[in-house]
Structures are given as C-alpha cells and as structure tokens.
Description:
The chain is 25% helix and 19% strand. It has helices spanning 6-17, 46-49, 52-59, 106-115, 163-173, 186-189, 194-198, 254-257, 305-311, 325-328, 373-381, 385-393, 423-433, 465-477, 493-501, 523-526, 540-549, 557-574; strands spanning 83-89, 121-122, 128-129, 134-139, 144-149, 208-212, 215-219, 266-272, 276-281, 294-300, 316-318, 334-349, 352-355, 360-363, 397-399, 453-457, 482-485, 509-515, 577-590, 593-594, 612-613. The longest helix is centred in the last third of the chain and has 18 residues, at 557-574. The chain starts with 5 loop residues before the first helix and ends with a strand.
Amino acid sequence: MGKYSWSKLMFFMMLVLVLALAACGGGSSEEETSEDSGDSGSEGSSEESKDEGEAEGESGEVYNYEDFNQVVSNDGEATGEGTLKVGLTSDTPFEGTLNWNLYQGNPDAEVLGLFDEPLLTMDEDFQFTNDGALNFEVNEDDKTVTFTMEEGVKWHDGEPVTIDDYVYSYEVIGHPDYPGIRGATDGFTLIEGYDEYKAGDADSISGIEVIDDQTAVFTYKEIAPSLTAGGFWYYAMPEHHYEGVEIADMAEAPQTRENPLGIGPYKVDSITPGESIVMSKFEDYWRGEPNLEGLELSVVSPSSIANALETGEVDYAINFPTDQYPDVAEMDGVEWLANIDGAYTYIGFKLGEWNEEEGKVDYKPEESKVGDKELRRAMWHAMDNEAVGKRFYNGLRWEATTLITPYHAEWHDDSIETPEYDPEKAKQILDDAGYEDTDDDGFRETPEGEPLELNFASMSGGDTAEPLANYYIQSWKDIGLNVSLTNDRLIEFNTFYDMLENDDPEVDIYQGAWGVGSDVDPYGLYGPDVAFNYPRYETEESTKLMEDGNSPDALDVEKRKEIYNEWQALMVEEMPVVPTLYRAYVVPVNERVTNFGIELGYDEETLPYKWGVTE
C-alpha cells in the first residue's frame, strides 16, 4: 500500500469513531462508517449481469484502481498564489456543525477537513505516528500515555493551542450533557474515571492529569491495541472560543456554525449556510505558510459536478460519483486519481433480535427463515459478484471474500477459501439439505415441507439500486428460492434503517455496506452488545476472538493477525453476512494543481498546506 493522505485521514478517522449511517452515491465513501445501498453504476438488467462475458461487453471498459496515480503528475513548482475551487458533491446542503467533536454527517466532515486538522498522524498500516502537532509515548507497564503538544501551534484567532484544548475535547465529549454521538470507543471508555465522569458522578476525569501547558498523562484501565490504531481522540477543541457556552448548546452555537476555529492551513472567512465557504491562507500555520491564497468550497449536485470540472468551475471534486467516471474518463484538463476505499458491500441475514432491555443481541437462528448455514451457503454460491463488479461498476468495485477488507492490507487474509459462483453447486447444497420443490410450483420448500418465502430489503436511490436488487433476487430464484422485495419495492433510506434497527419481521435478508475505520477491530459492527450488529449474530467463539483481538496480549501484532485470520475464517464458515463487493473511489483534479495526493499513509509532500497551482 502507499501512503495515507491527510484529507482521507480525516475522513477515516471519523469512520472508526462514528457509526453514522449514510446512503452512498457511487463515489462517496464513508463516513462516515456508512451503510449504503450500493446504489450507483451503469444501467442494466439482472439478466444481462449474470453472464460475465456479456456483462463486460455491455458496460464498456473495465478499470482497476491500481492502474491510477495516487498523486497528481503535475510536479511543477507552486506559484504561491491562486485559489483552489473545491466542489463538494452532494444532493443536499451541508448541515454546518463545524466542529469535530460535534458534527454528525459526512458533508460537514469534508468541510471540516479543509480548515481543521487532526493532531495525530497515521502510517500506512493505520498506526499512529508522532508526525503531527501532538506526540505520544505509551508506557505499557504503568498503563499510561503521555501526550505532548508541539510548541507554536495556533488557533486561527492567534491563540496558542495547549494541552488543555486536547483535554477539553474529552471533557466535552464525556460530559453528561454532551449532545453528540462520540465517546463510546476504547479511546474514551478505557480512561480511568471516564465512566464516572460521563455518569455525572465526578466533576473531572480522574485518569487525565495535566502536567503543564504542553503535557498531559492519561491513565488507562488497560493498554489495548485499538488505542494506537485510532483509539486516541484526534482533535483539539478551543476552550477559550466556547467560554460561557453550555455544552448542551454547543452544536447550535455561533462558535460552531458561524465562526468555527481550526488549526489547519486555511481559515474560514465567510459561510453561506449549507452552500459554500470561503477560506484564506493562515499565515501562522504551524508547519509553514500555505502555497495557496485560499480555498473556495461550494456544494455541487451529482448531476452537475462533471460539467463543473469540465468548465473549470471546480478544480477538485470531493465524493465524485464513481459511476459517472466511464463517461468522463477522457475529460480534458482533468487528472483522475484513485485508491482503495475503506468499505464493503454485503448481504445480511436476520438471525435474531436486539434485546433493548439487556442491551445485547438475542441470536436465535432456529427461529429465523435463514438460520440454516447451508441455505446461506447456497445463496452465496448463487451470486456472481465478479460479474456484478464489472457490469454495474466497471471494475471499480470487485468481488469480496472476507469481512476484513484489503484496505487493511496487512490484515486481510486472501488465502481463505470462500464460496465461488456455482449455481449448480448451490442447487446440490439445497438438495442435500432437504430443500425440495414438493408442490411443483418452481420454488423449494423447507426441509419440513413448509413454504419458504424470503423477504429481501434493499434501499432506493441511484440508477443501479433496482437492477442490482433484481439481479440478486433472480440469482436466488434460479436455484429455486422464492425471494421478493420487502413490501414489493425498494425502501427509502430512513425507513430501511428503522426496519433493520427494529428487527422488522418483514426483513429476512437485506443489502447494505459498512465503511471501516483505521482500526481493523470488527467488534463495533459484530460485537454481541453492539446495536449495529444488524444480523443479530453472536456466538461464544466469535465474541472471544474479537475480545482477544483487542486484549493486551494482542499488542503483539503477529498474534493479533492470527486472531483476526481465525475470525475471518469463522465468518466465512458461519456466514451471518456475505461480503459481496470491495470498492475503490476516484478523485478528479484539475491539471494545474500540484502537490495533491490520496495515498495511504502520512506524506508531508501532499499535505494541504503544500497544495498549489502552477502557471
């Protein structure tokens, strides 16, 4: 893997901390940690998609993200002048909660990433490094981490950034009146005294000791591997800026929406709510003077973004819809970058319910229509996901295998054998398991002779949502399974998630996707006490492996890899969900832009303050 870009770092730091749900367009990541409908790509029927050769011919050229650059090829010297025009591709306004501790949606995160930056950096293996404004030193014996703020880091109003601003982030997020959605990850809950503070039983977090203006020592209950893989909080919060503002009111305060402060190379000059932001260079930026006079961000609809790039209205597009790329690949004056995305699409099976009172999963496969592993295995064999990736996404999504994606290159185990597309084998599996068509209606009954009617929930949105859902339904019908859309239609985003979260009995199978964070730990999606565990799957073996993978013993990286390899293999055997597609994203950049990249891993040469334009 290459290096990790500063702008994508901000996004994926968010992913590990916020399991916010967002329907993606073709090119949008995600977020936040995002569930989506896989709703982009070329037009096409399910019948056309089933034959790989036909699929490739129908959809045109098939691309591989590895063939793209990750850094612009323009290596000219920046003029030190000019304004970069940034297009935020979105069909809705950005909300305007412009503080890392308080925001919730991906559009706000993209805006934030242009004027505020994380204090911590990461390497290509998603481990924190000491290349940012905040350094850290771990003492495993004492279960402490010493954080030290660099001298000379300033807020955009000229005030120095101190360690108190970093501690303040924890105090705000952990406060009982905090209105946001953060604070439940190990980076918070493992701090001594954090739970008591959050419950309102203490006025401060006992495990945080401020030594001086630049230094603080955090004491943890244990030093877990997740801490250095995304567990520490990334951002400072300007305590002086929010003086007098009640924590419960911070998200709506003018300090957040009208006059946000950051520490990045560009400062906010003006905001047109939901539509645009004008930024100018921050000459006292701690790394050095930026190469541009400023940035101008505007929201551009997905239907207009390609034209905005072609006319020069936009120099760089955030969240460009990947499904549009084949039609504009040869656009003059634009260079296309691409990289692997931290996300995967999957088919989920409802195997139980959420026990609200106990705050945990009730795994009841014996009561589920899809509780039989052999039924799920046959359904996996019936899906030709390699052809789906080519037909619907021109190769920019491709067949998935395990639930730890190649985005985590050192952790993805590609040696695990997974069910391949083989409808005849799928039929044989069903025959052997006792699923037979006993009434000659073309559909199989259960081994007990009862009708088997499966409801498939899939979200609406985008040109591909319907044909892709139809493809999967037809694939399962071809092996004799009676599958139809829940409520006979695609489901609107909010309704879809209400149904999943409430374990609606009309959902047996569903199609979604997860964005993954910097830490490879899958517990936040599949833990027994995690509400995002939508399949409602839980076994002693799975839970133990996930717990072992984030225990002090797993500080040995090789040991941790062994544990997660076992968990990946277990998930292929158990199949509570079937991963269908991995994905890449494309980024269009005007050819006059230099020092811009989307690599994985910290690289000072492509940090935003180095961005520039050439003559």
